[in-house]
């Protein structure tokens, strides 16, 4: 899952789009997915994110994201099936627990909605450098630097913490501890004790960063940016497409 928030270097058209356009795409697409209850529309949005990933040459990395979202969506779908007994019964999962047409339709809708809504955000972070996103938030949106810095830093730290967790698990494997188990309950039991050293290292890293920021005079005055971010015709075209998708979600409902 650490691949969800790691930037992938590239020079595609998607990479060169203004960070605000990609942020707008992720935000409005998420809204469109929650507005619409049409299965085909949500499936179309999901397939469009696959096209974007392929255009940005990150499809190979995005496969892990889609796989994780599919697993989470499938579990959500199964959970919802247990609590939607209305409609025509197809069969029974368990004695007294039916699978109905309404339950199956609504469960599939939740699964598609979650995958279609979260995929653009993941791809936006994979296709956007964090420093450019910070520049766009502070100089274009006029968000105070300290707040924009907190958001971007949190996004940067998540892959770092994931890598540290992988190193801790590898160290435990070298000591003979079983960590590769498919049983979800055993997996939780194995991971929970490893969160303590991760928490300690995270606190140390944050403290070091805070000291570094203080010595560099963080937020002591106005800041300038080295790279100016402008809008091109591709940005305008992308905004038109995103607005069309949002309008379509309102029309078809």
Q: Short summary of the structure?
A:
The chain crosses the membrane at residues 23-53, 65-83, 103-127, 234-252. This protein is mainly alpha-helical.
Task: Describe it.
The structure is a single chain. The chain is mostly helical and 253 residues long. It folds into 2 domains: 1-128 and 229-253, no CATH class; 129-222, no CATH class. Helices cover 72% and strands 4% of the residues. The protein has 9 helices and 2 strands; from the N terminus they run ααααββααααα. The protein has helices spanning 13-16, 19-35, 39-55, 59-81, 101-127, 130-140, 145-174, 184-215, 233-252, and strands at residues 89-94, 97-100. The protein has a two-stranded antiparallel ribbon with strand order 1-2. The mean pLDDT is 80.
Q: What characterizes the major β-sheet? A: 2 strands, antiparallel
Mean pLDDT: 80
Helix/strand/pairing class, anyone?
mainly alpha
Helix and strand pattern: HHHHEEHHHHH
Strand content: under 5%
Distance between the termini: 32 Å
Helix content: over 70%
Major beta sheet, strand line-up: 1-2
* CA radius of gyration: 22 Å
